[in-house]
Amino acid sequence: MHPNDIRRSPYLRLIPLGIFLMLALLMASGLFNSKPAPMVSPLVGKEMPNLNLPQAQNTARTFGLRAIRNEVAIVSLFASWCEPCVAEHTLLARLAQESGARIYGIAWRDRQEKVLAWLGKHGNPYHVVMLDELGLSTAALGVHGLPETYVIAPSGVIAHKHSGPLTEEDLQQTILPLVARMKNAK
Amino acid sequence: MRSRLLFFLLLFAIPARAVLPDAPLDDPAQEARAKALIAQMRCVVCEGEPLADSRTEVAADIRRAVREQVQAGAGDRQIKDYLVSRYGEAILLNPALRPATFPLWLGPLVIFLAAALAASFYFRQRRHP
Fold this sequence. Notes:
- The complex is a heterodimer.
- Helices cover 42% and strands 22% of the residues of chain A.
- Chain A is built from 6 helices and 7 strands.
- In chain A, strand 6 (148-152) and strand 7 (158-163) form a beta hairpin.
- The relative contact order of chain A is 0.17.
- The model of chain A has no long low-confidence stretch (mean pLDDT 90).
- Chain B is mainly α.
- Chain B is built from 5 helices and no strands.
- The longest helix of chain B has 26 residues, at 102-127.
- The chains are: A alpha/beta, B mainly alpha.
């Protein structure tokens, strides 16, 4: 075949069209994607960061997040001033009961007297309550706001992170099955 | 999706709590470095707002964390990696050039080259019928 014939080949002209069609299809599929996948936090799969905080019930004592080991645990960020946290609170109590996992609470940007009063009023499902007055946990735990919930594997690795209030659906579809799976794998 | 939207709306419904202005670092060189780093980041809880401008508590905490790490002697790369590992590449105004972001950076260039190549074939063909 003569080399010039290759340049004259009509198929070559179709290449840019082909690229355009592929891109168009890719972007169109995005348009019809009615339920975008929830963003997985980059912290999932990483070890729980090292953070020591005073305990709300006795600020002279501290608790370190790295001490959460050899158990499937939940870490829950809340505050006495957080409206959506109240609704989630009853779910947390059930979560602790039904899953058998211990819940470690962090009162975020809150004051001791307010936290203790709030726990007295709404109940205390937490094994330990840490007091983070200054928001030291924010950058450390990739906090976006309240509430935040972390499921921790026995190795100390963050298995799941949920931003926003937990719903019954989250509990039934995600959290409880995950905790059960990890407990059985032990 | 709905619960996430509700969460953000409820967050704004919480009575406004004072966010104190940032406390600058004592060492001016360190403070300058911290400011330069903060200038490269966006507020992760506000749509598109730069981290430096945001008055939210989360943004204030992240800015303080940057200052604390600068003061502790951490390098720029280390501090960025720390925050990216918590908030994802989205926290950086300029996503790093890594294998994962190659398509993002090089995509337009590749498409342009392909178009230029196709155009050159078209014009050559016109000259040599």
